Amino acid sequence: MLTTASDIEVLARFGRALADPIRCRILLSLREAPAYPADLADGLGISRTRLSNHLACLRDCGLVATTPDGRRTRYALADERLGHALDDLRTAVLAVETDRTCADADSKGCCR
C-alpha cells in the first residue's frame, strides 16, 4: 500500500493530539460518553479555561465534534472508530513493552 502525504498528516495530527496527557484524558473520557465542558473540567480536575484550550486543539485536529444543546455545547469523539483506535493503541503498547516509559515523557523537548 502506498503511503501518501495525507496519510502521514493524519497520523501526525493524531500524534500531536495524544502528545499531551490532558488531551489523552479528555479523549479517553469522551470514549466513554459525550460530555459538556463543565462536566469534563470537573471530572478531570482542571480549570474550564485550560480545558477549553485543549478542546479547541482536539477540534482543530478533527478528533472531537460539537453538538449545540440550547445554550450549552456537548463534545463527543468525531468518529466512534477513534474510541476503538485509542483502545487498540493502548493495548498494543502494553502488549509490546509493559515495563517501559517514554524517555521524553516528562520533558518539554522533542514531542512538543
UniProtKB/TrEMBL annotation:
Residues 3-100 form the HTH arsR-type domain. Gene3D superfamilies: Winged helix-like DNA-binding domain superfamily/Winged helix DNA-binding domain (1.10.10.10). InterPro entries: ArsR-like_HTH, HTH_ArsR_DNA-bd_dom, HTH_Metal-responsive_Reg, WH-like_DNA-bd_sf, WH_DNA-bd_sf. This is Metalloregulator ArsR/SmtB family transcription factor.
